[in-house]
Amino acid sequence: MLKSGLVSVSFRALEPEEIIRITAEAGLAGIEWGGDVHVPPGDPENARRIGALTRAAGLEVSGYGTYYRLGRHVGDLTEEFAALLETAKALCAPVMRIWAGTKASADVSEDERAALVAEAKTVARMAENAGVPAAFECHRNTLTDDYRSAVRLMSEIGSPFLRMYWQPNESRSPAYDREALAALLPYIENVHVFNWPDTETRRPLEEAGTLWQGHFSALAADGKDRWCLLEFMPDDDPASLKREAAALTAFMKQA
User: Fold this and answer.
1) How far apart are CA 7 and CA 19, in angstroms?
2) Which of 48, 56, 86, 206 is at a distance of 20 to 30 A from 62, taking alpha carbons?
3) Hey, where are the domains in the chain?
4) 218 pLDDT exceeds 80?
C-alpha cells in the first residue's frame, strides 16, 4: 500500500510542531524527519519527543533522513553511524536514509568503489544489529546517480538492511525514470515526490499527473508498503502544502 507524507526538510525554517500541524491539516499520513535541523543525531531525547509529538497528532514517522555519506565520515565510522542509529531508534523510524558517496558514479574508480562497498557492508551489519534498515538516497553525484550503478551496488552489498529510496532524475528523460523505477523496484523502500522538469525549475505536482500516475501504478504493483513523500514546495511556501498534498493523494488513488 502506498502512503502519503512529507519530508520535513521541505520546511527547514519551521519548528517541528508547526510541521506536524500543517502535515496533519493537509491530510497526509506521515513525516520523514530530517537530521540536519529538526532531529540532529546524538540527541535521542529530542528524537523521542519529536516522534511522540508526531504520533500524538495521528501521524507516523516514515523515516529518518540523515546526511551520512559513504567515504566522508569524520573520525571512527562505527561511532558516527551508531549515533545515527541511536537517534533513529529513539524516533522510532522504520528506515534511515543515507547517501552513497560523494562523487558521480562515472567518476569513481574500481578501487574507490570497492572501498565504498566495504564501508557499506559495515553499515549494513550495524543496521541489521540495530534492527533499523538504511536506504540510499537516489541522487546525483553518488553511486546511485544512475540506476545501473545503483542496481550493481545493491548486488555488491547483498544485504536486506541496505535498500533504496527513489525519485525522478531531473537531469534525465521520463523514459529513463521509467526504466530506473522498474529496475530498482525490488529495492525501493520510499519515494520522494516532486515535479522538477529540470534542475532549475520547480512546478506544481498537479501538472505532472500522467507521469506520477504511471510511477505510482508501478510502485503499487508488487503490493509492498511504501511512503510517497512530498519533498519541497514549488515556491517553498508552507501554504502550498495543501494543494501539493491534494494532488499527491489524488494521483495515488488513481494508481
Assistant:
1) 10
2) 206
3) 2-254
4) yes
